[in-house]
Each structure stands twice: as structure tokens, then as C-alpha cells.
Amino acid sequence: MHRPSRSIPSIISLLLVQFVWFGSTILGEESPERSRIKDFGLKQYLHLSKALPHREDQPWKLVCTLPYNCQFQPGLRVNGPSGQVIAFNSSNPLVQYLTPTEKITTGEGSRWYEAKNWVSGEGAIYTIPAGVTVEAVQYRETGYDTRLLGEFECNEPDFNVLWKKAARTCYLCMRDHFYDCPDRERVGFWGDGTPELNQCFYLFDQNSHQLCKELVLRKLEPKFYPGQHLEFLGEYGLWFYYLHTGDLDSIREVYAQTKEFLLKTYVSGKHGTWYDWGKENKDTAVIEACFLYIDLKTLVKVAKITGHEVDIPEIEARIRQIESTFNQRFWKGRYYQSDQVPEPDDRANAMAINAGLADRSKWPSIFETVLSRKEYSSCFFDRWVFEALCTMGKEEFALHRMQRRYQTMIPCSFTTLWEHYDRWWASQVDAFDEGSSLNHGWNPPALLLSQTISGIGPEAPGWKQFHVLPKEAFLTAIHCVVPSVAGMVTVDLHKDSSEYRLEVSVPKGTTAIIGMPKHSFASMKRIQVNKNTVWDGGFRTGEQGIGWAGEDESYVKFSVPEGTWKLVGEGQLRLEPIMSSKTPKMDGVALDKSRWKASASVPDGTFPFSGDNIPIEVSAANTIDGDHWNGWRDMTRLQHPGQWFQLDLGQVETFDSMVLDNTWALWDSPTEYTVKVSNDGVLWSQPVAQGKGALGITRATFPTQTARHIRVTQTGKSDKYHWSIYEFDLYRTPSHAP
User: Fold this and answer.
1) Residue 99 banded pLDDT, cuts 50, 70, 90
2) Are residues 94 and 163 in the same domain?
3) Which of 15, 46, 315, 328 is most deeply buried (CB count within 10 A of its CB)?
4) pLDDT computed for residue 426 by the predictor
């Protein structure tokens, strides 16, 4: 959760005390409970930058690509003289900086060597001395011993991508405890732990619940980001855990420390209390009051179920105090705002809705003046803005906002979600943050799509009763599976212009409240359950087992026992336009890079990473090694006309499109460019394409070319960013094959 400043060690020194509690260090030492960690065995890399076996007469580098971001230990078999030093690490520059590169000294002959400590990333870099032959490479994947059982798929591919990347992100942030990220601090912040705990119940088997339980039982640390404690100690942490597990013993065990923290320890009114990174204009006073209100109302429920009813009057007095002063202090006629900030904050206004402190009469003006206009929240806090929008019936807007804010993460080749939207550090300064994590556990899309949009969640502890109340908006098809402690809950939703079909599998020993959403219909005629009419303006008995659960402004609801239930709503439905997808669609076939050679207008060099100026190598050859973490950057000057980058394809090839991927250095996209081709690398064509670079990934199509060389030339300039290419690909439409 911490952002590495211009000097990462300054943060690390502040955090070392936290690692004492966890029993692990930033260098990756394991906790004693190794039984939690599964060894997936040795695996083959997806792509190698050199064909093996391979040796060179000078030191060389082998870059190996993994299929996804994971925790792994690189290994290799080499043959050569003894006493040679081989180094291996992740290709992620952040890992290279913060995790010491492991080195081994070779023995005589052919031998296998493997790293002792795990790193994370989507690729490995081996540095090989001259005269040593690499015969084979593999990696050993390890990770928390749990299985992905949850599922989500809908008719809009962007959300499927986000769900899968969120699931991979959450899993990669699990090991001996919940991490904020595996490539930097590996700290167990309560803030990051909240969405990680939440998503475990929608993603993984019950082995993952042990990490959730330990976070619940963890001793509170009032001086360690107390605002994050407030985010955890109410509906979103403690009560969420209780509803999903039914584990009353753990809730009973933490009641005393929770009560002590909320009623005595926590001090309100401290402006610097952390609730979010995101952009400045954080309205801490409003946010704090909302979370404290939520926590105190949760504490009343906990007091009732744990036998502490004697404490309830004191807790309720604090609740009434917030209720009686909240609007007087913060309501400005059309939105909530304290005197700490110059304009209303989306985070604060969302929390007023989530807490129930903003009554329905205020929702339209809050949406119009704040939530439809402001985007100050980070990836972390956007969870609560999303939930507030859906509470207001603005799920269409919520989904569009999610897609828009994740627009650079959806199409990129990285398989996990990042610390900051667009890798843009905006809390204190507006600048590209090269040191932010590309795998950060606080991203909530899997939770929001499975719980809020699919509408699946427990009503009673341990899922003895649960609800299915979809908020699908413009989605026309959803398949969702939730691995509840009571059994697998499966929901399939399909709708067209005249029917809304909802099929729900209810586990043995449970009951479900299933709602037919009124907001999906322009007019609803009838509802059938298993082909029997149960509603045509009023409830109709006849289908055995089905009960009436009421009707409100949003749903017509029924109660059903275990089994599979098929509900069909008939009438005239509202179908919204299809979204414009960010998911890339490359119809062409990627050309083989094995013969390619890359060169640029500047010599190969390095760039200084973070505050300690660690040199990260950025040679032109990095653009064709198959690894998107490893690239070329022109660090001699900022973007300027005349910079060029070119490829010798090794033979004449036919191609009609290209992709320049600089996602790692996201803001280094070419300002303006031209593309030329050549057969000899001397005489160049007129431009076959020209344009402006797109953030992270620049795609260009052009008339079919048959050439050996291709050159991209910078024609624009930037007064802030360098030019980077982290992977260069050429494509050929199959019909254009020679």
C-alpha cells in the first residue's frame, strides 16, 4: 500500500518493525508454517529469448517469460568450467531493486542449480558468463495452498478480463499473510487486507479462510494507520468475515479489543489519518465519521451475538451523536463537504451513502454534483464509490466508471492489477510513478462483479440463507459461481427484449432469496418458476417449495429451499447499448522474432531506478525478448523529433500491423510517429503509417508491406517523458501470407 518515494529505503526503514509480527522479511524468508505453501513443481517457461542449448564468448543474458505473474524460483542446467558466477532474478525492475539478486558459483560439468528464495513476476532474467552453456531452464512455482473455485463470465469481455486479473492479483498477495504486494513491502496492511479477505470468499476454497481468520484475530496496532482499522472493523471486515463463515468464536475473541479501539483508543479529527492514496482533496473528516458510524453499528450487532448487551447503551449513544451532528456539520445543500477540503470528494460522499447517513432525498444531487463528476479515489477506495453508485441504482454508471478507470490495465499483457490507475502518482505530485507495484492486493473488481453486479451474498451467518439480487445493468448474460462455506452457489442470467431468465443452484441445507429486478423491465407481465406462474402483479401459489419474500421498488422476491430454480420474467425489457471494449483484438498472426535484431538512435544504456539510482539495463534487444517488464528507453533526452527505433527482421517478411507496448513505462508512449520500411536498411520508403501514440500500447495498421527492415521515428516532442518500447510485435493478416 505504501508508495515507494524517490528513495525507497526511507520507507523500508519505517516498515521494518512491522515484519517482526509477521515472522518474515522483505527478502522473502518464509514463516515457519511452510505447510501452507504449495509446491507446483518445475514448469517450462512460456518463451525464451534464446534457443537452448546456447553459449556465447562474452557475458550474455537469457530472458524467460512465464504464463502469468506468480511466486517462483528460477532454475537452470548449465555445462562449463567451475567457478563461474551465474545470477538470476525476476524481470520486474521493482523486484530487482528490492530483492537481492541470487548468485551461484558453478561446479565442473553439467549441473542443475535453483534459486533458494522466491521472487514474483512474469519473467526471469539469467545473467550467464562467457563460455558457459545453458542446456535447459525451468522455474518452480509456489504459492498459498488454495484453489480458485469461483467463476465469473459475462457478455462484455472487459469485465471478464478484470475479474481474472483481480483473482490472480489477490492470489499473488497471499502467502504467510495478506500482502499489499509481493514485489515490494509484503506488509499486512489492514486496508489491503480488507478487499483481499472479501475476495477470498468469492474466489478460493476454504483453505484461504485461515488467512482471513488470522487477520480478524490479529492484535490491533493503533499507531499503524488507524484509519485502515476503521475500514476493517465494521461491515467490510469483521462482519463480512462472520457472515461468510459463521465463526462466532473468532468474533467473540476480538470483541474486547474492537470495543476498546472504537470507544477509547481511536482519536477523531486528525487530518493526516490515512484512508486512501488517490488524489488529494481527501475529505478525511467526512470519511472518518462514516466509517466510525458503520463500525459502531456493527459493534452493536457483535455485542448482541457475543453476550455483551450491557455495552449497547454506550455504543448507541455514540451512534446517536454522529447521527445528530453529521448533516449539520457536513451537508452543503447538494453534497457533503468538511472545511478540510476546497471541493467535494467522491470518497466522502460515497461513504455517506454507504453508511446510510445520506437519506434518499440527497442521492440525486450527490450523484449529479459529485459522483458523476469526481474521480479522486484510488483503485482501493473506488470499491466504496462503486457500491454507493449501485445502492443508488446507478450500476450502469458504476460499470462504465470501472471500465474507464481500468482502461490501461484491461488490454495490457500484465496478468495482475496495479497499485495506481495509469501508474500515475497523484496524492502529492502529478508524476509517473515508476516505483509503484504492478500487482497490488487492494484491487476489488472480482468482489464487485461477483457480489454486487451478480448480486450474490449471505443473509445469515455461514450462508444458511443468502440472496441473489442482480444489478446487471447493460449486461445481458452472466455466469457466476461462489464457493460458499455451505456449498457452491451458481447463478446464470440471460436476458433479451422479452425475457429475463435466472437460474440459481441453492446448496443443501440453505435457503435463498431470489429477486427479479424491476429496473431491468420497462414493463413486467409475469414471473414463472420452473414453468409455473408465481407472480402476475401479485404472488400466486402453486410451485411447491417457493415462498413469497416481498416486493419493493427494486425487486419482486421469492424464498426458495435447496435445489435448482429457474425463474423467467416476461415483459418488455430495457436493453442498453453494448460497451466499447478495451480488450485488444488482433486478428493477425504474430511474426516469429527469433531472427530479429533491434537498434536505435541511441546506444544501449541504463536508467536510474528510484532514489538510489539502481541501474536498470534498457538495451534495444529487450524489445524483442518476449518480456513486457524488460524494455528499451531512450534516457539521453526527452522525446524529440528524429529519435528512431528499427528492426532487422533477418529476412524479408510480409506484415500489415504493429504493436509498440510500453505499459511498464506507461507515459513514455510516442507523442507522434511515422513508420517506414526498407529492404536494405539504407533506402527507406515513404511513411506507411503515422499517428499519435496511445497510453501504454500503440497499435498501427497499414497497407500490407513486404520488407526486411522497419523503422519507427519520433516526430513529436514531450517536455516531461522519455520514449520507451518494452515489446515490439509485428502482425500479418492470414489472408496476406506470402
Assistant:
1) confident
2) no
3) 315
4) 58
CA neighbor of 543 nearest in space, from 521, 523, 566:
566
Three-class DSSP labels, 40-97: EEEECCCEECCCCCECCCCCEEEEEEEEEEEEEEEEEEEEECCCCEEEEEECCHHHHH
pLDDT bucket at 28, cuts 50 / 70 / 90: very low
Tell me which H or E stretch contains 648.
strand 644-661
Beta strands in 433-554 (DSSP E): 456-458, 465-468, 477-484, 487-495, 499-506, 511-517, 521-529, 532-535, 547-551
Q: 617 and 556, same structural domain?
A: no
Instruction: Give residue-wise pLDDT tens across range 245-292.
Output: 999 999 999 999 999 999 999 999 887 688 998 888 899 999 999 999
pTM of the model: 0.94
Pick 704 or 21 by higher pLDDT: 704
Q: What gap in Å lies between CA 231 and CA 293, rounded to an integer? A: 11
What is the pLDDT at residue 447?
98
Residue type for 48, please?
A: L
Q: Is the peptide bond before 507 cis (omega within 30 degrees of 0)?
A: no
Q: Are 642 and 653 in contact (CB under 8 A)?
A: no
Which residue range forms the structural domain that includes residue 476?
459-573
State whether 381 and 412 are in the same domain.
yes
Using CA atoms, how far apart are residues 640 and 151, in angstroms rounded to an integer? 47
Strands (E) located in 665-696: 673-678, 689-691
What CATH number should be reported for the domain holding residue 731? 2.60.120.260
The sheet that has 151-154: what strands, in order across it?
Answer: 151-154, 477-484, 487-495, 499-506, 563-573, 521-529, 532-535
Task: Grade residue 611 by pLDDT with cuts at 50, 70 and 90.
Answer: low
Report DSSP state, residue 251: H
What 8-state DSSP symbol labels residue 617? E
**How sure is the predictor about 737, in pLDDT bands with cuts at 50, 70 and 90?**
low
Same structural domain, 473 and 534: yes
